[in-house]
Amino acid sequence: MRFNTALLHDGVDLKETYGSTLPPVYQTSAFHHGSAEEMAAIFEHRAPGYNYTRVGNPTLTAFENRITRLENGAASVAFASGMAAISNAVLTIVSSGDEIVASRGLYGGTYYLFKDLRTLGISTSFVDITDRRSVEEAITDRTKLIFAETIGNPSLEVTDIRMLSEVAKAHGIPLIIDNTAATAWLVRPLDLGADIVINSTSKYVNGSGSAISGVLTDGGKFNWKSPKFPEFAAFAKFGRFTFTAKLRSGFARDLGGCLSPMNAFLNIIGLETLGLRMKKACDNALLLAQWLNSNHPELQVNYPGLPGTRTHDTALKTLSNGFGAILTLRAGSREKAFTIMNRLKLVYRISNIGDARTLIIHPGSTLARDNTPEERESSGVYDDLLRISLGIEDAEDIIDDLRQAIETD
Ligand SMILES: *Cc1c(COP(=O)(O)O)cnc(C)c1O
Predict the structure, then answer these.
(1) For position 369, what pLDDT does the model report?
(2) How many angstroms separate the alpha carbon of residue 200 from the centre of ligand 1?
């Protein structure tokens, strides 16, 4: 099945749902069992079934299975937010004394998390992830993982996943890719050699901004038997599910960041139109980028789909179907950026990305406000920078709104 057909039909068994094309919402905290033996068997993972929604729920399973197929992985675990998915992925691998090598242009929440981890004795080297030598030089004997985003936010630099995967493999460490800004519509990181992929499904997967959620997908191919990862030995019997088994019987259960069944259901609905929405949003982004580039070159539009942007060549060989739906521009000063924002009538002033509606934000005064000026500069957050997340409106209406906001005196 092709992309959009698979989103609607792949793996869907209508017999399990009495013919309902959508899975039911099991809006329950816990599950009754016919006998004490049955209950014990489920607790011990000897029998399939559910006990408690923090640990598992059929609606969550339906959502996780759809994401696993979408990302071409071995197994997925859903969480209450993208940040919960990232925290769980990382904490399942690193412990006190370990190190992480990550992109210097990470999503703000992830950047703050990695800084928070210092209090647990876990340190992170933030590097130019597009530069193989910088990545290699940052890796030490204590490095346990490489973390990058397919499309950096708001730098919009596209990561060479194949290159990073080679580096990770040479050092026997896993590569985690946050695919939120790209989605499987543009690339399946596991197919390019990543070991674990994260999606903040609050964004494009949900698509309407109706629920916060995140999901982690394990490719099932990383060799956890290496002496670098002794804590995984006890889970080696689970084969390609080694990582997922450690996660599910560890932090996923114990930190308690479970997704609500209703929110999983909202995401399942969103997933059905992911391909259509991504196509339209990416087309809109390219059209707006081209319009800005030809009519307002002074605004220095940054979009990976434009020839001449720093990672355009990586984008061409890494992404298919488009270049993402986010672009940035530089207004010249913070005041001018605010003026453009305030004049917009259609585009929403919202901190999100990946909504069906077009959204704008000034990252310097909001998302990155806790960063030092040096941190902002190195992650591409300039004081006059505006980030636009394109929605699926008619492109002409978005361009008209930007035109009146930029060209009014
Ligand atoms: C939004 C976002 C996250 C965090 O997701 P939440 O669902 O808001 O916790 C992580 N990574 C990227 C790239 C994001 O855009």
Answers:
(1) 84
(2) 5
Report the interhelical angle of 82-93 vs 108-116 (nearest 10°): 40
Residue owning the nearest CA to atom 6 of ligand 1: 82
Atom 7 of ligand 1, residue of closest alpha carbon: 82
Does 184 sit in the ligand 1 pocket, CB within 6 Å?
no
Those residues of the chain that have pLDDT short of 50 are: none
Give per-residue pLDDT as tens, 135-164. Answer: 999 999 999 999 999 999 889 999 999 999
Check residue 376 and give its pLDDT.
84
Beta bridge partners of 387: 328, 361
CATH topology assigned to domain 3-270:
Aspartate Aminotransferase; domain 2 (3.40.640)
Nearest CA to ligand 1 atom 8: 82
Helical (H) or strand (E) element with 153:
none
pTM across the whole model:
0.97
353 Cβ closer than 6 Å to some ligand 1 atom: yes
Q: Does ligand 1 lie within 6 Å of residue 88's CB atom?
A: no
Superfamily the domain 275-407 falls into: Aspartate Aminotransferase, domain 1 (3.90.1150.10)
Give residue 378's pLDDT. 79
82 lines ligand 1 (CB under 6 A): yes
Residue pair 207/355 in contact (Cβ under 8 Å)? The answer is yes
Domain boundary assignment for the chain: 3-270, 275-407
67, 200, 212, 355, best to mutate for ligand 1 pocket (most atoms within 8 Å of CB): 200
The strand pairing partners of 284, in sequence order, are none
Torsion of CA 77, 65, 58, 93, to 10 degrees: -10
